[in-house]
Amino acid sequence: MAILIKTPEQIEGIRQSSRLAANTLKMIEGYIKEGISTGYLDRLMEEYMRDHGAVPATLGYHGYPKSSCISLNEVVCHGIPSNDTVLKPGDIFNIDVTTILNGYYGDTSKMYTVGEVSPAALRLIDVTRHSLDLGIQQVRPGNKFGNIGHVIGQFVRSKGFSVVYEFCGHGVGIEFHEEPQVEHSARRNSGAVMKPGMTFTIEPMINEGKPRTKIDKDDGWTARTIDGKISAQFEHTVLVTQTGVEILTLPDE
Q: Which residues contact 223 (CB under 8 A, 6 or more apart)?
C-alpha cells in the first residue's frame, strides 16, 4: 500500500477534524477529578463530538464498544471506559480520541493526573511528552520515517525507560489507519521518505519497566504492561509541509 499524499482540500478537512479532536481533550480536562468514572468522561466526549458535527471513530471499530480509549496506570493503550472504573488520587491516565468530521479523521491523545501523583510517574509523563516533541522535530520532506523512532528510542532509553514496540503510529486522515506504520523505536535512516502532503500520527507509548504488553483476555482490547509497571503516551496528528511540519491536533486558543 502506498502512502497517501493528501490534496489541499483533504488537508483542510483533516485539519478541521484534528482540531476538533484536540478541543475534545481540552474540554474534558474540566471534568477530571477523584470519584469520576471513565464511563462518564467517555459519554461527555461523545456528546461533545456529536454536538460539533462529528462522530467518534473508535465506536464500533472492529467491535470496540466506546467512543474513546482511557488507559489508566499500567494500561498501555485501548483501555475501555467503564462506569466501574473510578478515578482515584495518584492515578495517571491517557485519553485517546479520534473524530470523524465530514469524512475526515483526526487522532490525538494526552496524559492526565488525579490529585497527588508520585515523582516517578510525573517523570515518566515528562519524558514521554518530550519524546513526542523530539519525534515531531524529525518531520520534514526528504527525511526517513525511521528517524522518528530512532530519536525517540535513544532519548527514552537514556532516561531509563522502555519504548513499546508492539503498537505504533500510522497514517491517518482519509481512513482511521493508513500507511505507513510509524515505529517509535527504529534504526536510523530506515523506512520510507517523508513527502509534503503526508499526514500521520506519532504516539510513543513509554513504559516504566519492560517494553512488552499483554492483552486482557476478557475484552480482547486492554493492553497492559507485562510487569504491572506504569505506562504513558502522548499523540499528535502531523502534516508534512513543503518546509517541515504542521501539528494538526492543537486545540483552539
A: 71, 75, 76, 77, 78, 166, 167, 213, 214, 215, 216
Evaluate the omega torsion of the peptide bond into residue 56 and state whether it is cis, within 30 degrees of 0.
Answer: no
Instruction: Tell me whether residue 3 is in a domain.
Output: no
- Residue 222 maps to which CATH number? 3.90.230.10
Does 13 fall in a domain? yes
Tell me the residue range of the domain where 92 lies.
Answer: 8-247
Q: What's the predicted TM-score (pTM) here?
A: 0.97
Q: How many domains does the chain have?
A: 1
Kindly give the interhelix angle for 38-51 and 8-28, rounded to the nearest 10 degrees: 140
- Computed from CA positions of residues 6, 99, 70, 22, in that sequence, does the dihedral angle turn out positive or negative? positive
Q: 39 φ, ψ to 5°?
A: -65, -40
Measured N-to-C along each axis, helices 146-158 and 119-136 cross at an angle, to the nearest 10 degrees, of: 150
If you average pLDDT over residues 234-242, what whole number do you get?
98
Determine the pLDDT at residue 186. Answer: 97
Question: CA 63 to CA 93: how far, in whole Å?
Answer: 23
Mean pLDDT over residues 86-111, rounded?
98
Cβ atoms 113, 29 nearer than 8 A? no
pLDDT tens-digit profile of 140-173? 999 999 999 999 999 999 999 999 999 999 999 9
Residue 1 has pLDDT above 90, yes or no: no
Q: Cα–Cα distance between 221 and 226 in angstroms, integer?
A: 15
Mean pLDDT of all residues in 39-43: 98
